Amino acid sequence: RKGTVIITGASSGLGLATAKALAETGEWHVIMACRNFLKAEKAAKSVGITKENYSVMHLDLASLESVRQFADTFRRSGRPLDALVCNAAVYLPTAKEPTYTAEGFELSVGTNHLGHFLLARLLLDDLKQSDYPYKRLIIVGSITGNTNTLAGNVPPKANLGDLRGLAGGLNGIQSSAMIDGGDFDGAKAYKDSKVCNMLTMQEFHRRYNEETGITFASLYPGCIATTGLFREHIPLFRLLFPPFQKYITKGYVSEEEAGGRLAQVN
Ligand code: NDP
């Protein structure tokens, strides 16, 4: 039988490229888990994914209620779950003030980490029940959250501190909007969220790999300097970043190549 894979944030960039690459193998039915239904449908059409190889299901990771609803809707579809790719993310490097999810958590950590954490937790049983030979849960990480890399040492560096902001609810009222309890910094919040993503996979591996046979991993796709991730950045950055990555750091990869890489680990 065909495998079923859920990809979050498959309406653009890496998620869309991965959806296309997996659908084209003919071995996967791709569930595009997206917050904007129409955008996702149009995106699938624009890259030529054929109708029988995908479905779009609504998922807004910035609302834990929506995550729960998504898991219910997926279960009601009656499909088995063979792979889950947590790809969606927001990056708000120029934000001066924090913004918040439906439940009042700072938006980058709320979306990238908390939303995916709940999704992964809820769908773990479904993955466990799959009879597919290679069951996988992959989260897209980033070297920017990793201080043993060059990019990870560009300030502000990721740092979760003693987690006091997270413990306090990340709501900017009783607690800081930042995990370490410090002042809000959008670029740092993104890096912190990616550290959480990577730690989540390490911990899932430790707790559940042996018992479930599921492979848990995080993957850095390379610098895909052209995606919508940088949409909130200043125009000069958006102009110079792709050539900088292409010719100076040589870390640049195209959306297509990065999508192929992510598809390969499935
Ligand atoms: P894009 O901005 O193109 O894609 C992000 C996707 O996430 C979009 O489909 C977006 O939906 C979706 N999304 C955002 N918020 C939510 C939400 N609340 N609920 C559901 N979906 C949401 O960026 P990329 O393709 O570059 O990013 C994909 C992944 O790759 C991210 O995890 C990012 O951290 C990671 N990454 C990217 C790198 C790069 O160089 N680009 C480098 C390292 C890692 P919508 O279309 O509706 O906006």
From TrEMBL:
Function field: Phototransformation of protochlorophyllide (Pchlide) to chlorophyllide (Chlide).
EC number(s) reported in the record: 1.3.1.33
Name of the featured protein: NADPH-protochlorophyllide oxidoreductase
Pathway assigned in UniProt: Porphyrin-containing compound metabolism; chlorophyll biosynthesis
Coiled-coil segments: none
Natural source organism: Gossypium raimondii
GO biological process, one term: photosynthesis
GO molecular function, one term: protochlorophyllide reductase activity
Family, per entry: Belongs to the short-chain dehydrogenases/reductases (SDR) family. POR subfamily.
Keywords, in A-Z order: Chlorophyll biosynthesis, Chloroplast, NADP, Oxidoreductase, Photosynthesis, Plastid, Transit peptide
